[in-house]
Amino acid sequence: MIRVLIADDHAVVRQGLRTFLDLQDDVEVVGEAVDGEEAIAAAREHAPDVILLDLVMPVLDGVAALPRLREAAPAARVIVLTSFGADERLFTALRGGATGYLLKDVEPAELVRAIRTAHAGQSPLSPAIAARLVDELAHGGGRGGSVDELTPRELEVLRLIARGRSNKRIALELGVAEKTVKTHVSHVLAKLGLSDRTQAALYAVREGIVGPGS
Question: Any idea which architecture 2-131 has in CATH?
Fold first, then answer.
């Protein structure tokens, strides 16, 4: 079962999400929270696999709560679920450790797919959000270096990151230790001047290292 925590200050939203998710055979809603402080406490108590996090909440908003959520439940994957696609907090949230970023008009079936995708170690993004990230990367991301600086192994790791592989999956495909993969990922990000795997994936698409459909 994928254990899910819902953090949103609107009771109707929480109830709607719980009602739909409870219908899924492989998803269990283990807790709810109305603000960032409650979300942190609930994450610590329930150890969820996936946290659905609203950005705009009282007491402590989603962006401010993110680092503490990561500490409270290090293994949890955080999906930001918000109404504001143009919110500048998008980039702050992704840099702060959010795994995915979806708008609240997402179709229910797509939300479930996103939860499963995040649980599998990949990064679900709504099309509108992905477009903003591509634009940001094209106009400012990846200024730290060139793909020519990567070793053949690092380039292969970058390709696999862009295809949504987790470190564990990359390790299995390359026949190396997961710790080795983590080292390669760190080197890739450092050499390209990128801050996270999402930027690395977008960089790979922009540079033609993988196709957009990968």
Answer: 3-Layer(aba) Sandwich (3.40)
Write the CB contacts of 140 (distance below 8 Å, at least 6 apart in sequence).
none
Domain segments of the chain as ranges: 2-131, 140-206
Enter the tokens of residue 149: 């600086």
Residue recorded with tokens 């230790």: 177
Per-residue tens of pLDDT for the chain, all 214 residues: 999 999 999 999 999 999 999 999 999 999 999 999 999 999 999 999 999 999 889 888 888 898 899 899 989 999 998 886 555 667 777 767 788 888 888 888 999 999 999 998 888 877 767 766 666 655 555 455 677 888 899 999 999 988 888 889 999 999 999 999 988 998 888 788 787 787 888 888 878 887 655 5
- Say if pTM beats, i.e. exceeds, 0.70: no
